[in-house]
Amino acid sequence: xxxRKLLGGLAAVTASGIVPGVSRxxxxxxxxxxxxxxxxxxxxxxxxxxxxxxxxxxxxxxxVRTGVTIILPDAPAVAAVDxxxxxPASRETDVLLPENLVQEVDGIxxxxxxxxxxxSADGVAAWMGARNRGFALREAPGIPPSPILPTACLYDLANxxxxxxxxxxxxxxxGVEAVEAAGPEFALGTAGAGYGANSGGLKGGLGSASAxxxxxxxxxxxxxxxxxGSAVAPDSRQFWAAPWEWNDEFGGLGTDELAAGPENYGxxxxxRANTTLACIATDVALSRVELKRIAIMAQDGLGRALRPAHAxxxxxxxxxxxxxxxxxxxxxxxxxxxxxxxxxxxDVLARAIARAVYEATALAGSDVPAWRDx
Amino acid sequence: xxxRKLLGGLAAVTASGIVPGVSRxxxxxxxxxxxxxxxxxxxxxxxxxxxxxxxxxxxxxxxVRTGVTIILPDAPAVAAVDxxxxxPASRETDVLLPENLVQEVDGIxxxxxxxxxxxSADGVAAWMGARNRGFALREAPGIPPSPILPTACLYDLANxxxxxxxxxxxxxxxGVEAVEAAGPEFALGTAGAGYGANSGGLKGGLGSASAxxxxxxxxxxxxxxxxxGSAVAPDSRQFWAAPWEWNDEFGGLGTDELAAGPENYGxxxxxRANTTLACIATDVALSRVELKRIAIMAQDGLGRALRPAHAxxxxxxxxxxxxxxxxxxxxxxxxxxxxxxxxxxxDVLARAIARAVYEATALAGSDVPAWRDx
Lengths: 374, 374
Prior knowledge:
7 helices, 6-stranded mixed beta sheet, homodimer
């Protein structure tokens, strides 16, 4: 890979890393905020795949109203996880604990289907093992490697789809379809793991966004939004994430209606069928412990874009991985580098969440409206 | 205590617990949003001490530019903690882990002084022990009880105060002064644990706020804001917490300027001297595990009111305690009750953070401006 030397130091934070914000007048007008400030921009796709060395694949089943999404690095990627919701469904998260052996993952799988969705990684693991991809303690003929595929699922069992799968849930098959579909471009909205998702009384979905700092670090986010909380203010179409919007990527409606009376959650707060699943990616070389801190900071993006968040009924999980296309600065400045990347990650994840709801289309026959139908 | 029966059920969330929000027009005008919506109001003081059975005491040392704050329940209170920042300074947080013996605390101590501030609880513990207050495994003459005083400190060592204390830091003495000063009223802004605090390039301070649901649950927050992140949007005096403001409690400036360009943190992001310390209180009877979830949800209030938050340089900690003045609903609805209280806690903490910065006054001789000087 092309490894460029990166300056991630304090100077970049306090001086050159800070660029002018959106002007007051354009923000107040709530539209035409213009391009991102000089020196900082979204990647060319405004997708997590703007991070070099990363592909994404979706599969969905319209009859079941569910789907699977895989984030697939070209090479094993250092990763971390932060589980913060009260109702998580996951596998292979323990492997990511700092004290454990394996440092890198072969993919991150997000799925609908609640516990049934955990089988999606079975399909991916078998597909990879057959291609000799995965972590190998011993490389020898006849010994398959162990693909490391941390996986998290959201609850879409009650969305009206046909769940009469008996003993044959579709998730293993969907996992294989997703990995075979992986590429640099992928759909947003009603797609992949977000296909059957709802969010705060509106149609949820799959979102993504990216940002590149002017010193060349790329941060991307992908998210499946099935939240208890709402992405928009009560009685408004404005997104909680509006302060961080770029280039009208979710409608450019501004911030002047961002207000919520106490215990007023708009259409949200219908518990028991929730979870927001996210993955942050960057091309900066980081340790798993550093990626854990970035995942923690990114959870604030989830909290800003959704109200409420991290409730007992949410299974909110944020993964973070590095494709390590870039080397990073030395030890003395690493905490500053992590601070910058974590703050970027929070902003990018908030934008990705709004894009998920903005891009979603209602399912035929469902009584849950899409944002665009409001 | 007066124990009232409380309905905390699902019906209260989906119907009666939801009240109308602030109207668009008043929110857009950014002022005169009027009283809180019908049926929901701040407590009479708009302080954490609106929670029945709770006092707060401050002590400060202007020459050293530091101080101590104690949250003092009238009777031992069930409590939990969520440590989320990357640079915490704390004691007696392990005692609050779910699997450990003691369920109740005698007080929560917040202090300046970084590691030296941990001595503040020594003073409080000795004061309480001499009065036979504290957890006693065996009650007998000559055996002092063990006061349970979880404590967290913020970094104000570099704020220009006189730290030439040699081997006699002032925190033990300040702890005693704080507990002796405890009462229902207390100062905001440059006071107590927030006396020497800075926040995102502005003077930080001590904040508090409260809310009461229309079914009679009270939630309060107290916070000492010494954050890496900024409480206001870049190039604006508007607070990130503005969407949740009540009754112009921090200026009523509205939300139309809430926008931030990428990597634009305004005056913030000067690392290495940070931490936001908070305590949530409620009069609803809860287990320690339930209070832990409420502390987790409250961290989103911290993330919403400050940008960025939870960085490696922050020692962000949220305590949560119950004075149990009210009984709560039965087991089947408890997760809904926790969701409501956690969402309220996030809003109240966001408001308390903005009030801390809004009320703060600059220290004489300091080059760090207060918000009111902007």
